[in-house]
Amino acid sequence: MTGKDPVDSINAGTQERMQDEPGLIRRAQSGDVQAFEMLVRHYQPRVLSLACSIVDDPADARDVAQEVFIRVYRFLPSFEHRKRFFTWLYRIILNCSYDFLKREKRFRHDPLDEAVIAGEAAPGEGRIRNGDLSEVITGLLGTLSVAQKTAFVLRDVEGLSCKEAAAIMDCPQGTLRSHLHFARRRLRDLLKNNYPEYLEGTGS
Questions:
Q1: What kind of architecture, by CATH, is found in domain 108-204?
Q2: How far apart are CA 165 and CA 170, in angstroms?
Q3: What is the pLDDT of residues 29-59, one digit of tens each?
Q4: Which of these, 30, 54, 177, 182, has the minimum number of CB atoms within 10 Å of its CB?
């Protein structure tokens, strides 16, 4: 592989349908820069989306995505084809996102104080505009612990199975389900106290 920046020339808004992903990965592993750029083009929107969900800022997510593809570029030759590529990639996204949060001293093991749930101003509330429920929930993700947020995003936003999400988080499925349960409950309480209009007709 050459020393050129693998991301600079990529159009973030473009996704290509890959007919033979394993073959494309093998070509990239053998040093085919064009094949690697096709992988980046295909996965970059999802990388940016997941990174933004974890670090809570589009500009920071861009920096994280840059680091993700640098690591992918560096470690792709050692990727084992018996593993699922997206699981391997998602773990890199989480690691880069977590490293970023730790550097910025924003890595939170515990959710925010219960006062937030009790109805006081929720972080991010000021930047939420009247929009659909998904936009509101995105703005409230910052109230969760990193583990809860990750579990929620992988399972309920990305639509992965519990088995896949647990593998990416490197934890037992029971732990994943626990993080997910508390994330859903916390978000529901925040919606109830701050945005009750979104729960009308749900029986909550």
A1: Orthogonal Bundle (1.10)
A2: 8
A3: 999 999 999 999 999 999 999 999 899 899 9
A4: 30
